C-alpha cells in the first residue's frame, strides 16, 4: 500500500505528508491566552510603572516637609527588602544565591542601588516628572543598544516605532526645560540633577541586562534581598559622610517614606519578573507610564507647573505604549499542536 510501511503498516515518514489543518474547536471551548511577552508587559505596566510613578513625588514631598536626605530615604527603602530573608530561609535557599552566580547577583544589586540613589538625588533638585522622564528615557535607549550589541535580540518594526515614539515623547517633555537652564548655582544644580537622572537610567538598563543572565531557583527573592543588603552597606556610611541624618517628627514625612518603601518594592519585583518575559527595551518603554503618573501628581498634589509640552509628550508616550502593547497582544488557542 502506497504511503505505508510494507511490514508493520506504519506511515512512511520518508514521503512528504500533506499539510494538516488543526482540528477546529467548538466556539464554547475556544480560549485565548496572552503570550509570555504580553504578560510581562502588562505586569511592567500595572505593577512596575504605575506604582513607581508615585515614588518620585512622595520622595519630593518628604524632602520638602523635613529635608529628608536621599541616602536616608534609600536606607528606609532597603529595610523593606530585608524581611525577604525569612522567605529564603524557609525555602532552604542561600541568602546570597549559589556560589557560581553570586558575583553577578551582587553586581545586579549594586547597579540597582546606584540607579535608585541617583533617582532620589535628582528629584530633590529638579521636578519629579522631569527626573523620571530623563531616567526612563536613558534606560530605554541604553537597554535597546545593549540588547542589540550583547544579546543580538532584534525588534519588530512596530516595536521600533513604539520605542522611538516613547523616546520622542520624553524629548518633548524635557527638551524645553533643558533649553532654559538658569545661569549660576541654581542652573548648575539643575544640570547636575539631570545628569544624575541619566546615570540612574544607565545603571537601571545594565542591571536589567545582568538580571536576565541569572538563572537559578529563587532568583527573584534573592536579588530583592541582595538589593536591601547592598543598599544598607553602601548607604549607611555614605549618609554620615556626605549628608546629615534627619529624624522627622511629622507624620507626613513618615507616611511618604513608608509609601515609597512599599510601592518601590512592588515595582522592583514586577519589573524583575517582566524583564524575563519580554525584551528589556520594551519593558523600559512601558515603564514610561511612570512619567505620566509623576506629571499628574506633580500638578495635582505638588502644585508644580506642568507645561503644554509636558501634556503633549505624555500623550505621545501613552500612544507609543499602546502601539507596543497592541503589537505584543497575541493569542494561543487551546488545543493547538505546537512543533
Automatic annotation (TrEMBL):
Pfam families: EamA. Belongs to the SLC35G solute transporter family. One of its GO terms (cellular component) is membrane. The gene is SLC35G6. It is a multi-pass membrane protein. The keyword Repeat applies. It comes from Microcebus murinus. The keyword Metal-binding does not apply. This is Solute carrier family 35 member G6.
Amino acid at each position: 500500500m502506497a504511503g505505508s510501511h510494507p511490514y508493520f503498516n506504519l506511515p512512511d515518514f520518508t514521503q512528504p505528508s500533506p499539510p494538516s489543518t488543526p482540528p477546529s474547536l467548538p466556539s464554547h471551548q475556544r480560549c485565548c491566552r496572552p503570550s509570555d511577552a504580553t504578560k510581562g508587559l502588562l505586569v511592567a505596566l500595572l505593577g512596575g510603572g504605575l506604582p513607581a510613578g508615585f515614588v518620585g513625588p512622595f520622595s519630593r514631598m518628604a524632602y520638602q516637609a523635613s529635608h529628608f536626605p536621599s541616602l536616608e530615604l534609600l536606607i528606609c527603602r532597603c529595610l523593606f527588602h530585608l524581611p525577604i530573608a525569612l522567605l529564603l530561609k524557609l525555602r532552604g535557599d542561600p541568602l546570597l544565591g549559589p556560589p557560581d552566580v553570586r558575583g553577578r547577583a551582587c553586581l545586579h544589586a549594586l547597579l540597582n542601588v546606584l540607579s535608585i540613589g541617583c533617582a532620589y538625588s535628582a528629584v530633590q533638585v529638579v521636578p519629579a516628572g522631569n527626573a523620571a522622564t530623563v531616567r526612563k528615557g536613558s534606560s530605554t535607549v541604553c537597554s535597546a543598544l545593549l540588547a542589540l550589541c550583547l544579546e543580538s535580540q532584534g525588534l519588530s518594526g512596530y516595536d521600533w516605532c513604539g520605542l522611538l515614539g516613547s523616546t520622542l515623547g520624553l524629548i518633548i517633555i524635557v527638551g524645553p526645560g533643558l533649553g532654559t537652564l538658569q545661569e549660576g548655582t541654581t542652573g548648575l544644580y539643575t544640570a547636575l540633577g539631570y545628569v544624575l537622572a541619566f546615570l540612574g537610567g544607565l545603571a537601571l538598563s545594565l542591571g536589567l541586562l545582568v538580571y536576565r543572565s541569572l538563572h537559578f531557583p529563587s532568583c527573584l527573592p534573592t536579588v530583592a534581598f541582595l538589593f536591601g543588603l547592598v543598599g544598607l552597606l553602601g548607604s549607611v556610611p555614605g549618609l554620615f559622610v556626605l549628608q546629615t541624618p534627619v529624624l522627622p517628627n511629622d507624620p507626613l514625612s513618615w507616611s511618604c517614606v513608608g509609601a515609597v518603601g512599599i510601592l518601590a518594592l512592588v515595582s522592583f519585583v514586577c519589573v524583575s519578573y517582566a524583564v524575563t518575559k519580554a525584551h528589556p527595551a520594551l519593558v523600559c518603554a512601558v515603564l514610561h507610564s511612570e512619567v505620566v503618573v509623576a506629571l499628574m501628581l506633580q500638578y495635582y498634589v505638588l502644585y508644580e507647573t506642568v507645561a503644554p509640552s509636558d501634556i503633549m509628550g505624555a500623550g505621545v508616550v501613552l500612544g507609543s505604549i499602546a502601539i507596543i502593547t497592541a503589537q505584543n497582544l497575541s493569542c494561543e488557542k487551546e488545543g493547538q499542536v505546537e512543533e
